[in-house]
Fold this sequence. Notes:
- The chain is built from 12 helices and 10 strands.
- With 367 residues, the chain is an alpha/beta fold.
- The radius of gyration is 25 Å and the shape is elongated.
Amino acid sequence: MARHEDNYKVALIVPVYNEEETISTFVQVVEEKLQSVLDHIEIIFIDDGSKDRSVAIIEELMAHNPRLGLIKLSRNFGKEAAMTAAIDLCDADAIVPIDVDLQDPPELILDFIKIWRSEDVDTVYGVRVDRSADSEAKRVTSGGFYYVFNKLSSKVKIPENVGDFRLIDSKVILTVRNLHESNRFMKGLYAWPGFKSRGVPYVRPERSAGTTKWNYWKLWNFALDGIVSFTSLPLRIWSYIGAGIGLLALIYMVYIIIGTLVNGIDVPGYASIMCVVLFLGSIQLISIGVIGEYLGRMSEEVKHRPVYVVSTIKGQLSNRLIQGYQRASSGIYFNERMPVATVKETAAEAGEASSEPAMKQGEGEHK
């Protein structure tokens, strides 16, 4: 296997969205910390529709650094879509998703590579043992999410305090490429194949510069995406709740009938009626909301819209990134020199073609 050979390649995939303050520092720190394995390292930036100078800075760095590459999306599709684009196009023996803010320590990648090459594991992930850099509210809500997700999901478990920072072997990558859902919850998708994995503890520092692009509303929606994507148990729970309330209503009805037969007609109070009506109404609205979450995501899935659209591929790695679509069963690549309908037949020309738009289709069809 390539991991045991001397010419292995590990690609760092780095999603970027308005990170002009951190990019140069990130590249400098990575090259310093990974000096011993630098010949085996590639850094692939994925610009997710940045409005600042992020792309310009990356282009300046690429001008004199052959190990850098850039995949530029046509607009902001979100971090999960950006990582999907990199996974589809990247051609390496292993990849390491890593944040540009240096909260994921690059020096830990040395441990990842050592374990990956010496042990029979296909994913090596970082486990945050100290999250003091996060707020108390974020630590509590994060712990609650991992607990709820793993309780609800019977088939896929994600380790607690583990983010996207991990080394992923090519066979896991190939499996993830063949998972075509539009709503991408990458932590779950990495775990879904079920290959052997191992955790490496580390202390998560504060951001080196800039501010986080994630607020609590985005994190809440992200958590919902994860739960809805990997378990249907919330739907089943409401069936149980409905059955339980129905049983209580039946018992109460029997109680009222017996009381009426024994004690005569009893006129119920208005307050008690309103309490019951409002309670049952709220239960119904919540259950409709849960069903709506699943229906909304089903509606998105059946449209088969692209998860992302790539507008530009740049850098000395661009030819290999262009050819990367051949390894992605659900992706296509085209440019101005070849019609979309014949792209598969002209795959050999892709490596020589200039980098222009590319997109991932949900089912891999040319439209």
